[in-house]
Structure formats: structure tokens, C-alpha cells
Amino acid sequence: MSNALIIVDVQNDFCEGGSLAVGGGAGVAAGITRLLAAEPDRWDHVVATKDYHIDPGTHFGDPPNFVDSWPQHCVVGTPGSEFHPNLATDRVEAIFHKGEHAAAYSGFEGHADGGECLADWLRRHGVDRLEIVGIATDHCVRATALDAVREGFDTTVLLDLTAGVAPDTTDVALRALTGAGVATRGKPVIRAA
């Protein structure tokens, strides 16, 4: 069996200057790049997820309520949907797009270009252990980690390489992760965007 790193939604729109910026996002991107360079043999596989919206319906709000609806973000074909330039992507073997036509928070809702879902890709590559990093701790990282455990993967979130939107929602997310059996290391970045 093998292990994998999942990089969740480290995209321009979720970093400083983006339409749905999370404070510390650019630093998280740079930190992931440093870790990949410092420990090149730590993971057998590295994959990434992308929010990838075409027309996600009520996921975009006008005005948004920041609970179930959000400002327009990560629209396919826009610079905001691209990975942040601080993130080195040369190790990324597969990208899983999610949310084209509906809200999608978990990377396990995504699919690669050929249509394969994340869980199937990981199983096909013999992965049983996951480490998860990315944006945002209290939304897509949380959802991805919870689904990873439900799918039977031994899952750890490296909190030092995640950025949370707000302290209260991040605290709720951390309790949910612990309650579901997700291991955590470090503390998430939480600062104003």
C-alpha cells in the first residue's frame, strides 16, 4: 500500500487578491511548495483538487450569504480558477475538478479529465494513507478529509499548511475532524484576507 498528498483548492480566487480570498492562502501555497521540495520521498503520489465552476446555480449568490452562497469564484477559464503561482505543481499527477454545475466542497466529489473520481484513482494506485493540505480548513479541506475517512482512508490534515476563513468555523471544523477520526497536526493559519 502507499500514501498520497491531496492539495485542496490552492487557487488564485482563494488567496489574497482573489474574489473569495482566505487570509494566509498565498503563504499556504508557498509552504506546500517548500515541503514538497524538502521531503520529495514523503509521498508516493501527489494529487490536487480545483473548484471549477461553470454554472453552479445557487452556490453563487447576489448578494451571497457566505453560508450556502458565495461571491462568484473559480469560474472555468478565468485566472481565478488557476493554481496560485506560489504552488509548485510539477509533482501533481492528477487534478480533480469539482462543482461545475452545483456546489461541491469535497475533493471526493471531483473527477479527473477522463471522468475518474478521486476515490477510484487513489484505490487504483494502492493508496491507503492520505495527508491533506490546502484551502479552506473550515470548508473544502474539512469536507475532503471527512469524505476520505468515510471512504476508508487513514487520513491526516497538516493544519500548518491549511488556511481557515474564520476562527469560529475553523474550530467547528476541527471538532468535526477529530470526532470522525481524522488525525491533525499543527495549527491552521487564520488571518484577515
From TrEMBL:
**What biological-process terms (Gene Ontology) are attached?**
pyridine nucleotide biosynthetic process
The superkingdom listed in its UniProt entry is: Bacteria
| Keywords from the named record | Hydrolase, Metal-binding, Pyridine nucleotide biosynthesis
Give the EC number: 3.5.1.19
GO molecular function terms listed in the Swiss-Prot or TrEMBL record: metal ion binding; nicotinamidase activity
**Which pathway does the UniProt entry assign to this protein?**
Cofactor biosynthesis; nicotinate biosynthesis; nicotinate from nicotinamide: step 1/1
Pfam families xref list: Isochorismatase
Q: State the top-level EC class.
A: hydrolase
Return the SUPFAM superfamilies for the record.
Isochorismatase-like hydrolases
Q: Which residues cross the membrane?
A: none
Domain Isochorismatase-like: start-end pairs: 4-182
Family stated for the protein in its record: Belongs to the isochorismatase family.
The name this protein carries in UniProt is nicotinamidase
Instruction: Specify the species.
Output: Micromonospora deserti
